[in-house]
Amino acid sequence: MQRAFTQLGGRAHGPGALARAADLDDSTVYRILQSGVHQGIFVREGRGLYRLGSAAPQLGLKALAHSPAPEAAHALLEALRRATGGLAFLYLLAPFGGAHRQCVDMAVGDSDLTELGMTPRAVQTVEHSLRVGAAGRAILAYLPETIQSEVLDRPVPAEAGPGAYQDDVRLLASLDRIRARGYALGHEECAAGWNECAAPVTWDGLVMGSVLVMKPKQIMTRCPVTVIDAVERTAAALADLGRGRPGGSDGNDSRMK
Q: What is the pTM of this model?
């Protein structure tokens, strides 16, 4: 039922729409909704509509609280930085206040990031956007269409690089390519002079974030297969950590292709 709310998007929905999205009969959905209202998972609104309640994000926060120790994820980013010679970043999907991304860790060696040429304001706009940059689009490609539409309704940040997709048709086509091959490439989207490669980080079929490598465009005019493979392997390893299986698989089931 909670996934049905996610798939439908919007604020509130009736039992009929939820039943169709969850592939359940109406009577079962009604019983679940009544039980969920009592537990605070759902909230009843006017005219027979329901929305997710405060207990739903509390459950998510409890699950995330038991995610892997940051040292384990940072070690993977450091290995990615050494393997590619670029700057490595980990982003997570942050839905509060509208879907966006948030950088939670990075491996940048001795860099202080000033060479990126990004102002503090740009960090709060471009780096949060899901429609700008390989890291943002690698997440956006796997979100429900309703959330994608909400993201596309927002303007491209003024601080975005010259390669940012200004046209929604081209942007949507790029999301199709990401889903087809499992990774995203960016050319001067977030900052002039920097190219990117990113892959989604998923837990049990849900996109949670993305891992990114940035390199100067004069060094990485075209992203080599070795960088793409390293980014995808790191994303798969981070997915295994999130599921509590460090090194427990070859990562193939972690890629959303």
A: 0.75
